[in-house]
Amino acid sequence: MIVVDTNVISYFYLNSEYSELAEELFLKTSQWSAPLLWRSEFRNVLSFYIRKEIVSISDAFQIFEAAQTLMNGAEYEVNALKVLRLSYESGCSAYDCEFVNLAQDLNVPLVTMDKKILRNFPDWAVSIPEYLKHY
Known about the structure:
Shape: globular
Number of strands: 5
Strand order of the largest sheet: 3-2-1-4-5
Helix content: 55-70%
Order of helices and strands: EHHEHHEHHEHEH
CATH class: Alpha Beta
């Protein structure tokens, strides 16, 4: 199992420069987990794609349902105090620290392409290419 941030989920379901890497990641490790926050963040990404007319609203509904199915049973509440402490100590957003906190609680890597998270949490966060090479 790994924790993935919303960007990785987005790369997996929406065409981007990292989509192939996200697909490779899924083939290597298909047990993805995330804090419940991923749902709101992913809806925001889909909303942006709808407004830019990259996907239709009906396609966005289907994509969201597919992502929910993938993440079903692997979504977690996180500890607000731990998240706030991580955010304070790192300077990262509380949103990002929810993913870090979950990785710490589950004692698994957080796979992300977010440079700030990778820089501030080198013991927990790993990029997709690094994960594919070393795990």
